[in-house]
Amino acid sequence: MERVNVMQQPWDYLIILDACRYDYFEEVWQNYLQGDLKKIISIGSSTKEWRNKSFAGYYDDVIYISANPYINSLTAVKGFLGREHFFKVYDLWLDDWDKQKGTVLPETVTKRAIEIIKTHPDKRVLIHYIQPHEPYLGSTVTGPGFEPPTAGGYLQGVNRGQLKSQAIIKMMKILSGVLYWTGIRGNFLIWKLRELMRMPPAGPMDAVRRKYGKEVLRKAYKENLEIVLEHIAELVNGLTGRIVITADHGEMLGEDNCYCHWSRNLNKILVEVPWLIIDKGIKAAELAERTADEEKDKAQPSAFIDKEVSEETKRKIQDKLRALGYHD
User: Fold this and answer.
1) β-sheet with 86-91: strand ranges across
2) Residue 181 forms part of a structural domain
3) In this structure, is residue 111 part of a structural domain?
4) What is the pLDDT of residues 117-172, one digit of tens each?
5) Integer Rg of the chain from CA
6) What are phi and psi of 23, to 5 degrees?
7) What's the pLDDT band for 185 if we cut at 50, 70, 90?
8) Please, what is the angle between helix 188-196 and helix 166-181, to 10°?
9) How many domains does the chain have?
10) Is the pTM of this model over 0.85?
């Protein structure tokens, strides 16, 4: 099956579920939505890889509503600056972050998307939800083994003074890199070492795995998916045009002792994702006229100098990525 680049497909609204596996989606989606579902192979097995391969150009007809700091308008994250690729990026991860949950809640994404879409009737819109990606929002797990992020953003409420020595941290980072490049991928070994060395969990998924085990982790993941689908159904109800719901990549949930996701992998669990088409007729944007100001604005990407972004903003991006379980 050929790998699919989302920008080469027809859509008016593209809804991204972060880390959504096809098999879990297939099991529950009809409880919330109607449409034509098929399985596709993602162009990447991590957000970074999917992002870099999907959005190589500049898309003056697309706005990006982003709950994931990997796509933002303020500063480049691992070489990618959102405002260099899209007409406009809305940074929900910055303005609408729930400090107690350590994420942007799906109901918040839906509410903001409805507001934003009204201001851009002539644009295609890409809406990126965090769920079913960790952390987990449902009732399957309670007190999942870590505290909410601190004001500084450190996962589990752990500040620098509580972490192990910098030497141990550096050693773990090097070991992770060695295991990755030698093909021993997945986080289980590193997570077990962290546990043996009495280090805090690497992220929300590790915390749930450590406290409850992989079977409960899978239930929590499924519940996260059901929660986000409920709020996506609310969004879809008010849209017209061709709506596509898909994912950037899948997620390992203990299969072969592997967890999370990583780049450059063809494991079907990581690359098989849903492609749900909901066709609701002609989009109102096709009838809207672009104003002279919009034509001028879209002619070129906005000029941007990365050094103008404050160090505080850059730190917030990294803190929120850590809170979501990104640690590479």
Assistant:
1) 3-4, 36-42, 272-280, 241-247, 13-18, 124-132, 59-66, 86-91
2) no
3) yes
4) 999 999 999 999 999 999 999 988 865 444 443 333 333 333 344 445 666 667 66
5) 20
6) -65, -40
7) low
8) 160
9) 1
10) no
